[in-house]
Amino acid sequence: IEQWPFSAHHLYMTAGTYLSGIDYPGRIILLGYDRAGQPVALYAITGRSENSRNRVLRSQDGIIRTEPFDEFKVSDPSLIIYSAVRRIGERIIVTNGDHTDTIYDEIISGGDVEGALVKRTYEPDGPIYTPRIAGIIDDAGYCLGIIRKDGENAERLLYRYGKEPGIAHVIHTYEGDSESVEPFASMPLRVELDGDVLEDVWSSLSKGYRVASCCIAGNDVRIINALEDGNGEA
Prior knowledge:
With 234 residues, the chain is of the alpha+beta class. It is built from six helices and 16 strands.
């Protein structure tokens, strides 16, 4: 697993400003600290297909899961139903798939995120081969990882960052537009946390693709579901 140090050259902007310039980012993870130094973790889902858009986020017993909004419309649950957020003490794990559980189990058994990522590969949804993205945050810092297709191999990258109040990093699964979807090929982007990050991100996403988003800040958990809250056309 290749590790990259903090990079100071990233532009300063909010996550919403950055994401508003991306037609279809896929799934999104943001980790960082607000200006008071409180850890903030955000996950957002955008989807193109009816199967992908037929989802909501639910929180129960410290776990945030994707669930079908209408069970009768589910055509394939294998890559769309999973635990997106789990906690281990003060640590928060966020991913775009069932590798949330892989990371959780690895850490519980004494391992780490690197050990979890080498056990997994990118999603088998050719021809796109959606990357698996993941993040862990605690009071000391955070890391963001991605597993993406590189030829016939899986490229696994892990980026580690220290605690910096008012700063976060964003990673997502896709680049390009909704017609020419390409796997995310960049580094996580450094952004400012200013104001309501959940609203900042949600309002930046295309109404035609946004599905759900959640934000965890301390003990505060907030969720927006397009199909329930009237904030989208999912």
